[in-house]
Design brief:
The complex is a heterodimer of chains A (484) and B (337). Chain A has 16 helices and no strands. By secondary structure, chain A is an all-alpha fold. In chain A, α3 runs antiparallel to α4, α5 packs across α10 and α13 packs antiparallel against α14. The N terminus and C terminus of chain A are likely disordered. With 337 residues, chain B is of the alpha/beta class. In chain B, the strands form 4 sheets. A 5-stranded parallel sheet of chain B has the order 2-5-8-1-9. Chain B has a two-stranded antiparallel sheet with strand order 3-4. In chain B, a hairpin with a 2-residue loop joins β6 and β7. In chain B, α1 packs across α9, α2 packs across α3 and α10 crosses α11. Chain B is globular, with a radius of gyration of 20 Å. In chain B, 45% of the residues are buried. The N terminus of chain B is likely disordered. Classes of the chains: A mainly alpha (484), B alpha/beta (337). At the A-B interface, α12, α13 and α14 of A face α12 and α14 of B.
Chain lengths: 484, 337
């Protein structure tokens, strides 16, 4: 964890957002699973969106084909990300590569069973272009916790909007609930992982599987609780409430729809544009929506799809511009996308924090149990690891070339009242780490007590930290020179 | 200290060297404290240097004291020799000093009618080689075999040197006229290179006070003997070094070889010396295991004199000490993740 992680944690929502915007280095071992999660989300939300568009526009684009074609696009673009043409000649090779990619995906699409009839080629090429852009979007995305979070939010927003539109347009979306559940699981997983970085998890075996298991368990438990609470009376009350909200929206839409010309030709474009549960007339408990309202809905959906496409293409173009300007970031550089900049960021960050808290508590209980059954030496090492995480959480991570004694002196300079505890823990750790001696039970108990006292100490942060950090560094340099 | 030596001798006789007894290490610690206390009675503010000299002695190494004249190099050597209670010899190096003046010569005994070996000043326990860089390379090389293998060869006869054997060489790095810089092979034989540095104002005032009357060196009593020093050395060899720390030392030495400003990095002998010095330092501090702090503390005195810095880097003001410190700041210490 970088030292600057907690700089923005002055309180409230900012703290939550800062927590959720944790960035891990792209070269970390978590890069591959992160990339897989982002890819899965990308496929999910693209699948939902294109499935709905295909059904609504009668394009007959099967989701299965998309799910096969999109990964190809993603793989090509991820490979392209590592392709570094020489400076000054980037745009032309990139344009050539893009054209080839679009053609390749279109060909693949046709080969997978799509028949390119008369007049369908432009549609296929457009679809291939959209897929290519999606692939580019993912290919240029840095696999980080923040990108996973953002993807989760975007995907969830798209999913909810699409489900609403599908419900409104009566387009059958059989896969919708499953895709939604997958979104939630993946999102919670990502949030838990992101928060876990702040919570102090150290990279170790089983970390990924552990968080995955807790995430899935959380979803299942939440589902069971919701199912238990969702009695018929509650559901009826929800339905009544929704019907009331819908009547208000309906009145508003009807008022707006009167501004549009009454053209019956466009009404048949969709596969039965009816409100839920009814047919014909003004909407009231199962009636068909009036044509004016349907037109408004259709226009709104088209606008929504266009906005999404613009966002995707805009993001892509931004990457291209950055690329052509030579602003390629090194792999080690962090690219933090603040969660608060996305719609509903605070809410999702709070949910993520809650979930991560649960994950952290489970983890803590597990470790407490594990400390109890470990040998004394292992327990001392585990307590030392906790001390490292405790200090790192406050922005005082140990530098790789620092010895435990040097690190303890550094921390003692930051927090003089914790000096005896730091010394005790470090001395015990040195003995179990570098000697053949095993710590005794009495010593372990003393170290535990020292850790209990130490964790209540507060290391200086913010301005206090800036003032304090410089002085010990100067002192240590002097000591080093004197020693040598 | 004498009781401590008895304890160690007894444990050594029982063959318990690999499994360090904490009592033996405690004896080393007590011996080191006595030694340093004795040195402090003569020298002011040189405890750290004296401790490193003791480390070299315990690690069966040799020390090169390098500093400007008048800082107490010779005094330190004499104090160490006197404190150890070992046989002390002094070799004052001059350009006309011959190898036989160091090692000894075969002379013809008229009574017996045979050649008899007459040992030179090298045949002692603590040898002060004063101003070593004033001796010719030929004479300097006479010390190579003695320092590395603890023996000298005169004509066809090989004579073992008494143990313990500690060479304390001094040289003045400033006055270079009429001197012969030590070759790399000779420098590599020294376990540590130490610099004393100028005393502070208060320390200098204390020096004046202390040497105003009777010379404190004349009143200095030994705190140990040769046999006990050998036992202490045996204890130090058994100090535990964690494998991760061995890797750390190897990485550190390797970093000096790969550094772009270095023409010749530290040798495997340097790694070995660093490990033995770290073991000795740990024992002197009362530990039966080595810490990374021991390695870091000893890295500069144990490695810097073995590096050959490139000329262009030297012209930029880079020193071997800088390079070692840079490596210390870069090589990760084996600690928990």
């Amino acid at each position: 964890m970088s030292e600057g992680t907690n700089e923005g944690s002055s309180g409230g929502l900012n703290k939550v957002r800062a927590v959720a915007a944790v960035q891990s280095p792209a070269s970390s071992p978590m890069r591959v699973p992160l990339l897989l999660i982002v890819g899965a989300m990308e496929i999910l939300w693209a699948g939902v969106l294109l499935d709905l568009v295909g059904r609504y526009q009668s394009l007959a684009v099967p989701v299965g084909t998309l799910l096969l074609v999109l990964p190809v696009s993603i793989l090509i673009n991820v490979s392209l990300r590592h392709w570094r043409p020489s400076r000054g000649a980037r745009l032309i090779p990139f344009a050539v590569g893009m054209a080839l990619g679009v053609c390749g995906i279109a060909a693949l699409w046709v080969a997978l069973g799509q028949r390119a009839g008369q007049g369908e080629w432009p549609t296929i090429l457009c679809g291939a272009g959209v897929l290519w852009c999606l692939g580019v979007r993912l290919g240029w995305r840095r696999p980080s916790f923040a990108s996973v979070l953002r993807e989760f939010q975007l995907g969830l927003v798209v999913f909810l909007a699409t489900m609403f539109a599908a419900w409104l347009l009566q387009v059958p979306m059989a896969t919708g609930p499953f895709l939604g559940a997958a979104f939630v699981v993946l999102g919670l997983l990502a949030l838990g992982m992101a928060r876990s970085g702040v919570y102090g998890f150290s990279a170790g075996r089983g970390r990924f599987l552990f968080i995955l298991a807790v995430s899935v368990s959380t979803v299942l438990v939440t589902g069971i609780v919701v199912a238990a609470l969702a009695t018929p009376d509650v559901l009826q009350a929800l339905r009544d409430g929704f019907a009331w909200v819908w009547r208000q929206i309906d009145g508003l839409l009807a008022a707006v729809g009167r501004w549009f010309p009454q053209d019956s030709g466009a009404a048949g474009a969709g596969p039965g544009l009816q409100a839920p549960g009814g047919a014909g007339g003004e909407f009231a408990a199962g009636d068909v929506l009036p044509e004016s309202v349907l037109r408004v809905v259709r226009v709104a959906f088209d606008v929504f799809a266009m906005v999404m496409a613009i966002l995707v293409i805009g993001s892509f173009m931004l990457r291209v511009v950055e690329w052509t300007r030579g602003r390629r970031l090194r792999a080690s550089e962090a690219y933090v996308e603040p969660l608060g900049h996305t719609p509903g960021g605070g809410l999702w960050a709070t949910l993520g924090r809650l979930h991560a808290y649960l994950v952290g508590e489970v983890r803590r209980l597990w470790r407490r149990r594990a400390v109890g059954v470990r040998s004394e030496a292992e327990s001392v090492r585990e307590l030392y690891r906790r001390m490292l995480r405790w200090a790192a959480k406050s922005g005082y991570a140990r530098r790789p070339a620092q010895t435990p004694v040097e690190y303890a002196r550094f921390l003692a300079a930051m927090c003089p009242e914790a000096s005896p505890e730091l010394e005790m823990i470090t001395r015990a750790y040195d003995r179990v780490r570098y000697s053949r001696d095993a710590a005794g039970v009495a010593e372990l108990e003393a170290v535990r007590q020292a850790w209990t006292r130490l964790r209540t100490c507060r290391l200086p942060r913010g301005k206090e930290r800036v003032q304090l950090v410089a002085a010990p560094l100067r002192e240590s340099r002097v000591v080093c020179e004197e020693t040598t | 200290m004498k009781e401590g030596g008895e304890t160690m001798r007894a444990e050594s006789a029982r063959g318990r060297q690999p499994e360090m007894a904490s009592a033996a290490v405690e004896s080393v610690h007590r011996a080191a404290a006595s030694f340093l206390g004795n040195v402090d009675r003569v020298l002011v503010g040189k405890t750290e240097v004296a401790e490193l000299v003791l480390v070299a002695l315990l690690a069966e190494g040799h020390v090169l004291l390098e500093d400007v004249p008048g800082l107490g190099k010779t005094m330190l050597a004499k104090t160490v020799a006197r404190s150890l209670g070992c046989e002390f010899r002094r070799i004052q190096c001059t350009p006309d000093l011959l190898p036989s003046d160091v090692t000894g010569v075969q002379i013809f005994d008229q009574q017996s009618g045979t050649f008899v070996f007459r040992p030179g000043p090298i045949m002692g326990n603590v040898i002060l080689v004063d101003e070593i860089n004033r001796a010719t390379p030929r004479t300097q090389s006479a010390l190579l075999e003695a320092m590395q293998e603890g023996q000298v060869t005169v004509d066809v006869e090989t004579v073992s040197l008494p143990r313990p054997f500690l060479v304390l060489a001094t040289q003045n790095p400033v006055e270079l006229e009429g001197t012969f810089p030590l070759p790399e092979a000779q420098l590599d034989r020294f376990l540590l290179r130490l610099r004393l540095g100028y005393p502070g104002p208060q320390e200098e005032a204390e020096v004046l006070t202390r040497f105003c009357g009777v010379d404190p060196l004349a009143e200095l009593a030994p705190v140990t003997d040769a046999e006990e020093v050998l036992a202490l050395q045996a204890v130090c060899r058994g100090v535990y070094v964690d494998p991760a720390l061995r890797d750390y030392m190897v990485s550190l030495v390797g970093a000096t070889r790969e550094h772009p400003d270095v023409r010749l990095g530290a040798s495997p002998r340097a790694s070995l010396g660093l490990q033995r010095a770290a073991q000795a330092l740990a024992a002197a501090k009362g530990r039966d295991f080595v810490l990374p702090d021991d390695v870091k503390l000893l890295a500069v005195p144990a490695l810097a004199h073995r590096l050959l810095v490139k000329t262009e880097a030297r012209l930029r003001g880079r020193t071997a000490e800088d390079i070692i410190r840079e490596a210390l700041g870069r090589v990760p210490v084996p600690v928990e993740d």
